[in-house]
Amino acid sequence: MKVKSIMNKVFITDPDITLKKAAKIMSDKDIGSLVLVKRKNVVGILTERDIIKNVSKINKKVSTVMTKDLVFTNVNEKIENAARIMANNKIKRILVMEKEKLVGIVTATDLVAHTDILNEDLIL
Predict the structure, then answer these.
(1) Which burial class, exposed, middle or buried, applies to 5 when counting CB atoms under 10 A from its CB (0-12, 13-18, 19+)?
(2) Which pLDDT tens digits describe the chain residue by residue (124 residues)?
(3) 3-123: CATH, from 3.10.580.10, 3.40.50.1400, 3.20.20.70, 2.30.42.60
(4) CB–CB of 22/36 below 8 Å?
């Protein structure tokens, strides 16, 4: 099974918004992360954990706490390979690209939801 079959819509915003505004967006959309884009370039990701760890900086810009070391995969990558990449990088989210364009995100939760498929693919 390929990544494109389990990926989710990715929500993007500007890295110059405040953590408070980012938290509001994430709460309203019931999502665990925002991808930060500046001039059509992906520059970072902000997670719930980032907000919790920096709650005392709630009025600071997202760019001051976002994760800048991003990990990507391709829509046609097998999900077991994406899972390995995530495990090797100790991350819970991987950004999905197609033809150099951000098209989605896969989370650890998505992988857990497809554990039966992962197990079959890893055995074969």
Answers:
(1) exposed
(2) 899 999 999 999 999 999 999 999 999 999 999 999 999 899 999 999 999 999 999 999 999 999 999 999 999 999 999 999 999 999 999 999 999 999 999 999 998 887 665 555 444 3
(3) 3.10.580.10
(4) no
